[in-house]
Amino acid sequence: MNASSSGKARAASSSQPSESSSKRKRGIFQKELQHMMYGFGDDPNPLPETVALVEDIVVEYVTDFAHKAQDIGSKRGKLSVEDFLYLVRKQDAPKLNRCKELLSMQEELKQARKAFDVDEEKLAASLD
To answer: For residues 56 and 33, is the Cβ–Cβ distance under 8 A?
Structure first.
């Protein structure tokens, strides 16, 4: 095998889907990614190949990130939100601020739903 044919073999093997990407269902995030891509300036209807490539990249990134967080969490015996925040803190301060903002909004929504459920139960009890 000469140098040029071994280079072609490497290039062909690198274009093959990784083991983890071939085990998962593809296209799960297709619509969401199309909307996100459009929001970042892409065409309203991007090529399916482009969406599939972006999906592969995103899934690989999230999977690697989750595995790193799991490694950190395994030292304490469980995985928590703080493990993810620790990793984000090391990588990107604006991302950390956005994560904290989203977690805060999630807590506010949870409290609002809880208050709404309690009010609804009181209303139902008063009507009986």
So the answer is: no
- Picking from 57, 47, 46, the residue whose alpha carbon sits closest to that of residue 17 is 57
CB 53 within 8 A of CB 92: no
- Could you give the count of Cα atoms lying within 13 Å of 64 in the half-sphere of its Cβ? 8
**Helix-helix angle 81-91:93-127, to 10 degrees:** 150
| Lookup: tokens for 6 | 């071994």
**What's the whole-model pTM score?**
0.63
Region for 42 from its dihedrals, namely left if φ exceeds 0, alpha if ψ lies in -120 to 50, beta otherwise = beta
Over residues 36-57, the pLDDT tens digits come to: 999 999 999 999 999 999 999 9
Residue that the structure tokens 């995030």 belong to: 29
